[in-house]
Structure formats: C-alpha cells, structure tokens
Amino acid sequence: MHRLYKLNLKQQFVLFFISLIVLPILVAYWLVSVKVTSITEKQMGDTLFQLVKTSHLTLDEVIASVDGTSEKLLISPEIRRLLDAPPHTDYDRLKEYLALDQLLTSYSSPNAINYSVCIPDLAMRYTFAPTSDVKPNGVFFSCDTLPGGWFQDAVNERGSGIIRILIKPGDNVSSEKTAAYVRGMNSNHDKDRPAGVLVITGLNILLQKNIQSLRIPSGGQIVLLDKSNTILAENAANLAVGDRLPVPESVSSLEQGVILERNGRDSSMYAFHASADSETKLLFKIPRQSIVGEHEGIRQLFNTLMIVYFFILLLASLYFIRHILSPLSRLTRLTRSFEPGRTLGNEMLLNRNDEIGMLNQSFIDMTKRLNQTVHDKYVLELKHKESELALLHSQINPHLLYNTLESIHWRIMLEGGQESAEMVRDLSLLMRIGLSRGEKLIPVQEEIKHVEAYIRLQLKRYNYAFVVDWDIVEEAKSVLIPKVILQPLVENAINHGIRKMGSDGRLSISLRAQGDTLCVAIADNGYQAVDLAKLHSILEGKLPHEGYGILNVHRRIRLHFGDEYGLFYKKMPTGGTQAIIVMPLAGETVAAGDSRR
C-alpha cells in the first residue's frame, strides 16, 4: 500500500484500470473462449472414445459370427469329402464339386457376402470348374498362391482366420476390391492333404451396415483399418476399401486413445481403438469445427461484445484522463518545476468553472504574488553580491601591483637591460588582464596568460629553477571563469611548496572538462607537510584572519556559480599538495576569435 501512494494519479488509474477491469475481463474471456473450448473438446473426446470402443466390440462380434460360420463349413461333409477322399471318376468329381458349390451358394447372399473355397492343388482334377472371374462364389481351383499373397498368409495361419483385401470375384470389370475373411483348410496331421482356403468376400458390406448405423457429427469419418492402415470398411464417399488411409504418426503408434491434431481450420479429432482378436483398428475422424462450431459462434459474439465494450471503456478512460487526470498532472508538474521569479506562460490557462479550474486559478494567483516577493528580494541580493565581488577584486590588484613593482625595482638595480624590459612587459600584461575593462568573467586562455606572466616574473625575480607542466584541453580555453583565481593558488604552491627545491620543484597546472564540469588542478611536489584540516577551516570561514587569498578565490567562485562549486585541497600520493577548482562548463563560453579586451 505504501508503494501505491508513491504513484501519481495517472499511474494509479492505469493500475486500477488494468487490475480491476482489464484482467477480470481477460480472465472471463479465457474461461469462455479457451477453457470452455478445452472442456468441450475433452468431453467430446471421452464420448467418442466410448463410442468407438463399443462400436469396435460390435464389429468384432460380426467378425466372430463370420468366423463361426467358417468353422461350420470347414467341418462340413462336403468339404471333407473333397479334401480327404478325392473320387477317381469324373462323375464322382462332378458330383462332389456340385454338392460343395451348392452348399457355398446357400450360405452366400446376392450383392453382399459370398462364400468360396479355393484349392489350387486339385486344379488338374477339376478342369471343368469355372474361375473366380465368372461367378462371385463357389469352388475355385485357381488363385493367387504367390508368397506373401492372401492364400499363402491363410495357409500359414494353420487354421486361424484373417482379414485381407482381395479383388472382388465374379463379373468385376473395374477390379473393385473387397474385404475378405480367409481361413486355411490344411491339416497339421496329414501333410499329403491338399491345401485349401475358405474365402468369405463382401465382409466390408456386412461391417459397413453396422458402421452406417452410427451417428457422429457432420463431416466425420468412420474407418475400420488393418495393421497396415488399409481400409477394410468405411462410411465416407471419398474413401474406398483397399486404400491406404493417411493418419498422423501419433495415431499409428498408439493402440487406443483420443488425439486432437491442430492444423488451423483443418484440425481434426481422432478417436481410435485396436482389437487384438481381429487385428483391426476402428478410427473416428471428426472435424474440430463440427465439435466446437456452435461454441465458436458464441465466442465470436462474445469477442464482438468485448471489442465494443473495450472501445466504450477506452473512450471513457480517455475522457477521464484528458479532462481530469491530465490537468491535475500538469498542475502538479508545474508546481514541482515552478521556480520563484519565473513567469508562467499560457500553458496554465484553463477556461473551466469546476473545482479543477478554481484550483488552477488559485495557483496562478499565488505564483504572481510569490514572484513579486522573490523579485524584490533578488534585486537586493544581486546588488549586495555585486558590491561584495567588486570589493574582493579591488583588494587583490593593489597587493599584486605592489609585489610586481618591487620585483622590477630590484631587477633594474641589479642588472638593467632586456630582462627588465621583459618584466615590464609581463607587468603590463598582468595589469591589463587584471583590470579586463571591469569585466568579472574572462576566457580561460586569458587567465592562463595572466598566470604565465606571473610565473615568469617570479622566476626572474627570485632566480627560481622549478619546472612548470601545462595540461589544458582545447575545449576548455573558451570557457568563461572569474578573473585572477589561478594566480593566488600558483603563488601559494610556489611559496609554500617548491620555492626552495630548485630544479627539483615541479608545478603542474591542468584544466579538463569532466561531463558538464570544468576541473582546474594546481599541484606541487613540495616536501613540507600540509595541514589539510586548517586549509578546509580557512575555506569554511572559520579562520577569518588567515588564508585571505584562497578564501577570496573560494567565495568568488561560489558567488558566481553556486555553493555546489568552489575550491578544494588534497594531498598528492607522491608528496605535495593539489588545489582543485570545480566550476560549471556549460553555458559560459566565448567565441574563439573574441579576446574580450
């Protein structure tokens, strides 16, 4: 709750809008469109599986009844006489043939199931018998006995019946295929007995009568398959017995179950069950659209209503944000960003008579009164700062001019000539830059010239031999800084650091830009210990009678740029002291060709 209070009104409104309106609607949409669909699919899948399982058991019973009929025929006297004791005369052979043929015809039904016996081993004895392309049932002595064919498969089963796809016997110009139940008639005890096969064709017609009685959603398919996914019976006009049915790998690899194959609008649900007795698999293929079609219509209606509802809700939210939250947020931003003395523009004007308009007008009136008060105070403080800056600067130049003239005096007395002229030139440069036509800020490059002239005077005045290292980046030379702020620091570094070190003394002066800040560092390698605590006390104004030069520099920088800038000291790792001035870099620059003289 504490984190909630840290959010602004818009953020709180968006949070409540999403958590209390959008998310509940999305959850309801998910329940209606996704969860209900999933539940419908699962329930439909369970129902289809029970139906396919029950239907397959019924088909197995049909196949079992055919197997029972074949068992009766196999033990009939007509078949036994033909196989066990072949007659020696043609008349006897004809009589036995006709007896068995009549028996098979009595079991057969026109345009449906037909019973036949195929005994190729007796073909030489019954040359008068017609072939299977003449009549649909009867006794035949010529058939496909090639290895891997249905005849050989039935013989290899040793009396067990199997289902195979055959070319339909009889007048079959179009080579129509049929599902047949074939069963071998060979004897395991009598190897000399001729091999024969009982063939029951039209099994698919018998099975399809049961399949067509089943009721499934429109567009569905019911297919009975063998182990190789060859169609044995079906209820679809676009399928034919003997064709291979393409099924997903997931369906082929499992014995039974329900699988939903998703493929866009062509998604289908497969319910299937395998029978170990008949070695068949019954498959229901139902288009998913026919299962959830009605639900899809309801979902589309729900989607349309949700879109309309969201559109209305969005318009209401935009109105609320634009006419209530946005004016309050704008007023809040202006309140936070308002600076005393800044005049508000037309962005605060609101032509409204409600509470928000009254609050806005009250804030405008308050800022006007505050601006007037701040303006009066600012004018007074500005005059006071200008007077203080002028006083501080006026106290530096006489002191510097006195020391310089004393140096020239001593040099002229001791030597005279060119060196003295150079000192006079440096003095002229010091005076010109120090005065700067009364300007308070000068470019860094002019301040550097001022420091260079001062160092040259000091080197000549005292015969110092210290080394000066300069490190000034080009972009810093045009930055405006308060004048005569480096010379006091250089003077301190010489007098308190390297004055007595001769050529071992080293003075380093660097000016670098760090982000939006100008960093000036003046370091010496002096060997004397430095009391940093005392220097910091001087800069804080705790020792008003000491360190006037560095205090002057520190105060002038803060008066110009603010209390976050100023002068700082630290010890060098290799010995000596470093004075660091931090000033703003942006906003105060001068063109490269402007000398500001």
From TrEMBL:
InterPro entries per the UniProt record, alphabetical: Bact_2-comp_sensor_kinase, HAMP_dom, HATPase_C_sf, HATPase_dom, Sig_transdc_His_kin_internal
Superkingdom in the source lineage: Bacteria
A GO cellular-component term linked to this record: plasma membrane
Keywords per UniProt: Cell membrane, Kinase, Membrane, Phosphoprotein, Transferase, Transmembrane, Transmembrane helix
Membrane topology value: Multi-pass membrane protein
Pfam families documented for this protein: HAMP, HATPase_c, His_kinase
Entry GO MF terms: phosphorelay sensor kinase activity
Transmembrane segments: 12-32, 301-321
Domain HAMP: 322-375
Localization per record: Cell membrane
Name of the molecule in the record: Two-component system sensor histidine kinase YesM
Species whose genome carries this gene: Paenibacillus methanolicus
High-level lineage: Bacteria, Bacillati, Bacillota, Bacilli, Bacillales
